[in-house]
Design a protein that fits this description.
The chain is of the alpha/beta class. The protein contains eleven helices and ten strands. Helix 4 packs parallel to helix 7 (164-176). The longest helix is centred in the first third of the chain and has 22 residues, at 3-24. The chain is globular. Bound molecules: adenosine-5'-diphosphate (ADP) and magnesium ion. Magnesium ion binds next to helix 2.
């Protein structure tokens, strides 16, 4: 990959951040306010408030079934929030259909890494790039191959034949191909070996440090997520019960007892 490629992206990111800074006076990049969402008559989200500021990594932790994925999906409009407001980059997206939200500068790597298993790595990345019209494809492809050398080795391999870790890298790379302003990751560590989790999280940290990429990450793996994040939220049965810096939450006795017992992997 060319160093020039990185510089171009960094410059563009700076521009975006400058725009964001002026928009910053208006509020956070992503703002979730009093959001409730339902599956039929079951209230899966109960008035959730979460902010993600430009340049931050924010983690949402919580047990299985707490509503973390539901929040991710609600931000993408499916299910739609029945109460409350979701704002992205100053725009109210609460009632936008999913396909219109997907065209905004936010990209998602969903739980269970739903890559296209019959398509090759390259074709999966093409799908990611198509969201913003497929511009800069060659340059961004090279960039993903540098970020994730495993993907370069397997560029013509079908997604479904790769290991869990490689598929997760592909899901993240596919999301990054649209050059998002906000990257949303749902359980990127799920089912992966600790070493692979470390690799993936350190790549996310580097993207944040070098390019100012804003990241919202949902994880059951509280230890790694809070280590990575600037700030975090704890969700219990559809409601946010705690928030603070990643370190403050890691040090909190309640968080320790509920989410960090039994090891740091
Ligand atoms: N499609 C669905 N239909 C009905 N209930 C659902 C659906 N998806 C999730 N739920 C329920 O909503 C709650 C939150 O689930 P989820 O958001 O997947 O939690 P988490 O991602 O934190 O594990 C759970 O009780 C789950 O059973
Ligand atoms: Mg989930």
């Amino acid at each position: 990959m060319s160093v020039a490629g990185i510089n171009v992206l960094v410059d563009e990111t700076r521009e975006r951040m400058a725009q964001g800074a002026s928009a910053g006076a208006k509020g956070p990049l992503l703002s979730v306010r009093g959001v409730s969402a339902y599956y039929g008559s079951i209230r899966a989200l109960k008035g959730v408030d979460i902010d993600v500021n430009e340049g931050e990594i924010v983690a949402l932790i919580g047990a299985n079934g707490a509503g973390k994925s539901t929040l991710m999906m609600t931000i993408f409009g499916q299910p739609q929030a029945r109460e409350g407001t979701i704002t992205f980059a100053g725009q109210d997206i609460t009632k936008l259909p999913t396909h219109e939200i997907a065209r905004l500068n936010l990209a998602q790597s969903p739980e269970g890494r739903r890559i296209f298993s019959r398509m090759t790595v390259r074709e999966n990345l093409q799908m990611g790039a198509a969201v913003n019209g497929g511009k800069h494809f060659a340059e961004d492809l090279e960039r993903m191959c540098t970020l994730f050398p495993r993907l370069k080795e397997r560029i013509d391999q079908r997604g479904g034949t790769m290991s869990g870790g490689e598929q997760q890298m592909l899901a993240i790379a596919r999301a990054l191909m649209s050059r998002p302003r906000l990257l949303m990751l749902d359980e990127p560590s799920l089912g992966l070996a600790p070493l692979v989790v470390k690799q993936i999280f350190s790549t996310v940290r580097e993207l944040n440090r070098t390019e100012g990429l804003t990241v919202f990450i949902v994880e059951q793996n509280a230890y790694h997520a809070l280590k990575l994040a600037h700030r975090g939220y704890v969700m219990v049965t559809g409601a946010v019960t705690m928030s603070g810096t990643g370190q403050a939450l890691l040090d909190d006795p309640q968080v320790k007892a509920a989410y960090l017992e039994g090891g740091q992997h």
